[in-house]
Amino acid sequence: MRIPTLETKSLLLRPLSVDDAQNAYDRWTSDPDVSRYMMYCTHQSIEETNEWLKYVDINSDVAYDFAVCVKDEDNYLCGSCGVYYIEEDQVFEVGYNIAKDHWRKGYGTEIMQALVKFLINDLHQTAIKGRYEIHNEVSGHVMKKCGFEYVYDEDDYKFDGVTKHECHVLRYNVKGQKKQFELYNGVSFDPVAYGTYKAEPGSVTKALKAGYRYFDTASFYKNEEMVGSELKASGIPREELFIASKIWPDEFGYKETFEAFERSISKLQTDHLDLYLIHWPIAEGDKQWRSRVVDTWNAMSELYKAGKIRAIGVSNFLPHHMKVILDNCEIKPMVDQLELHIGYMQQYAVDFCRANDIHVQAWSPLGRGRLKEDPVITKMANKYLVSPEKLMLRFLNQNDISILPKSNDLARMSDNLDIFGFTIDDYDMSFLLSLPQLGYSGEHPDI
What we know:
The protein has helices at residues 21-29, 32-35, 46-53, 107-121, 137-145, 203-210, 224-234, 254-268, 289-305, 319-328, 347-355, 375-383, 388-398, 410-417, 426-433, and strands at 6-7, 11-15, 63-70, 76-86, 91-98, 127-133, 149-157, 164-173, 181-182, 188-189, 194-195, 214-216, 242-247, 275-278, 312-315, 335-339, 359-363, 402-403. The protein has 447 residues and is α/β, with parallel strands linked by helices. Helix 4 links the parallel strand 5 and strand 6. The protein is elongated and about 90 Å long.
């Protein structure tokens, strides 16, 4: 990409070139006060500055060098700045320096804001590195003012390879938005639910403490009584909770569905469900599954119309299963829960759901621990300075998929909710969506 010209209130940031060598040497590269905090050492001659500028490439994809010019001073060249790709960190780093007589004029803030905007809007970056020499408090103030946050310290050396350069390292992350998802019937819910499959006693109480208000259970889990008791004991008003349960194939049938529903709400100690799903489309060996699904769905539809269920849906239904409902029933599903995670995105099923306004939820969003040490995932997690688990959950959230992570550990529960402090950039999202199959559970409704 050719280096553009950027403009701020006071400055023009234009491509830096070898033609700037004399001005650069005269105005700041030879000044010990300027270079005291910079990576390069003070240039002793115009030849050194000229040699430095020979490395500038106006068509580089990994280094963008700008000359800093003051507009109201006839474009006076007062410094330089740039963004440079750091292979080790997999992110771009920003940096600037200006002549001593232009310090404390607010130019540092204007430069940093312009570089961040350039990286986000032009290079489509969502994670940006910054650093400053530990004694350079002004630069630290500028970077924090521009949204950078401290992450760690690192030792470095100036370009002479000898002079130590101790730095505070900061990171600018494009934050995510924690937004509610909304079904086609207007029912909304949190983007992260607590999945109770194999939840231990006390885990629901911990999840409430961590901040969860959406709880997903099922008759098949054999824990509806525990979930209901711990929710009731919390004292949290029912209207602040979102409770989902599911009906298993051995409960299918029109009359049987009403009975299964009553068993579930009795155990959950509630008079209604926020979401009720058909858990699995086909019981093993059942040749009559189509009519049994239709009968079950029609009963669920009656409960929905009566206000006993706020939303109805399915789980583990692929398009050929859902067509049975779509072709034979009045109300179409509002939700489909599928095994979805990096390396197993079932894109055909997801696309089918979206074409029919059916919201997609992910069970096993972390691949049940099978993916956390995968080198592709760990490398990318390191880029964003997050755990592999956070990367996997954020990936699904950015794909407009709600997630049902499960854990019995309070700290992990909290981490699974805290996924909105960063954004995976478009390049990485595309890369992750294009991976070959990883971490598949082997569970398939037709096999």
